[in-house]
Amino acid sequence: MLIKLREDQTLSLEEEEDFKGFCIRTENSKVDLSALDAITERIEDGKYWLDARSVIALSRKSTEKEWLELWKKGPTRLRWNKVPLQVGDLAPDFELQDTSGKSVHLRDFWRNGPALIMFWRHYGCSCGVDRANSLKNEYDDYIKLGASVVVIGQGEPERSKEYSQRNGIPCSVLCDPTFSVYEAYDLLEGKPSQIVYDAPDEYLHIDYETGAELQKSRHGTDGGLVDSPWQLPGEFVIDQKGIIQLAHRYQHCEDWPTPSMLIPAIKEAIWESK
Predict the structure, then answer these.
(1) 226 secondary structure, DSSP code
(2) Fewer C-beta neighbours within 10 Å, C or N terminus of the chain?
(3) Residue 107 is part of which domain span?
(4) By C-alpha distance, which of 58, 52, 51, 53 is closest to 4?
(5) CB neighbour list of residue 192: distance below 8 Å, 6 or more residues apart
(6) Is a pLDDT exceeding 60 seen at residue 218?
(7) 3-state DSSP call for residue 39?
(8) How many domains are there within the chain?
């Protein structure tokens, strides 16, 4: 399998009969090869061995480009067209990949007790790092009550695994790069005032230059801007019968529920299942 790096820094996959394993090939001589030499092993001119770390580094370029295009487009899901899922409704079940690529059903997390389902924003959001830190402090309290905890993120397995390990997320992480589960749980996108509400006023403008400047300011940090910039997070407590007992949809990117909200909801989920 060949992974081709195009001149615009995007990637493509190609089959090649006489090559076993994975490698990367540049599309033409105009591509800057210095980054490839730093993260891969050159096997001949224009061909490179590719390991998991290289896939993450190179895919980040594609996801950063996607982020900028979505920024320029602006949010499109700002209101519900129907009554959103609420307490008492049956939680949708989906089959998703975990960070190892294994398929997992959401219902497996509430099969034996209540589940806390946490929808992340994107893997470049500094608010997500803050939420990961608070979750590490809260996690044991939820587990002691008998709850399962799972995070759902936008990234594919490789990036989800790297993000989870880097930020010490203590629970399973599932992947929803198509936003199917986000949309099924009626999680909306946010306006700039909800997404970058604490940033300078110039970042409230939705235009290419503003987005490019914001993205440039985060290069080389753990908060590189990738995936959808507009997706708002949410957290749900679901009982053993698959019924939603708490539906918390963020109004801004730091609007996560406190343990004083989640612990009583988990206890209610236990009582409701008896």
Answers:
(1) -
(2) C
(3) 95-272
(4) 58
(5) 203, 204, 205, 206
(6) no
(7) helix
(8) 2
Distances in whole angstroms, Cα of residue 44 to Cα of each of 22, 81, 252: 14, 55, 49
Same domain, 114 and 236: yes
**86 occurs within a structural domain:** no
What type of residue sits at position 238?
I
What would the two tokens of residue 203 be? 């970042």
Specify whether the CB–CB gap between 98 and 175 falls below 8 A. yes
* Residue 210 neighbours by CB distance under 10 Å: 17
User: Which amino acid is located at 136 in the chain?
Assistant: K
Whether 215 has a pLDDT exceeding 70, the answer reads no
Convert 54-84 to b/e letters by CB count within 10 Å (16 or more is b).
bbbbbbbbebbeebbebbeeebebeeeeeee
Q: What is the pLDDT of residue 225?
A: 46
Together in a domain, 46 and 101: no
For residue 266, is it within any domain?
A: yes
Q: Is residue 202 part of a domain?
A: yes
For the whole model, what pTM was predicted?
Answer: 0.75
Distance (Å, whole) CA 267 – CA 102:
30
Tokens of 165: 């390990």
On whether both 149 and 236 belong to a single domain, the answer is yes
Quick check: is 79 in a domain? no
The residues with which 119 forms a beta bridge, in sequence order, are 152, 234
